Amino acid sequence: MGKFIITKRKDGEYQFNLKAGNGEIILTSEGYLTKSGCKNGIESVKINSQIDSRFERRTSTNDKDYFVLKAGNGEIIGKSQLYSTKQGMENGIASVKQNAPTAETIDETI
């Protein structure tokens, strides 16, 4: 089962990582000024991860594939790691779709 892990960055902003059942990070959020904003971001991932058109497939400057997940308003909620193949990226998207809706949230900032 997947897990959302809330942490605090060195700059004081909150972020979350979505980890698959095997512990691999499959999505990393943007920074949030408040913990409640971060938690709202998690809820947005749970909803938007079920809509394929909200995943934007991209290629980095060094030709690695990655994806971003966008909310209904077009804002980026999270970003994947870099993948060496398009199939790896598609597997990552499938993992977010599978894990996000039922993932528990663990707050490591407490």
From TrEMBL:
PANTHER family cross-referenced by the UniProt entry: PTHR40606, UPF0339 PROTEIN YEGP
Gene3D superfamilies cross-referenced by the UniProt entry: 2.30.29.80
Pfam family, one: DUF1508
InterPro entries noted in UniProt: DUF1508, UPF0339_domain, YegP-like_sf
Protein name listed in UniProt: DUF1508 domain-containing protein
Domain DUF1508: 10-56, 61-107
Organism field: Epilithonimonas arachidiradicis
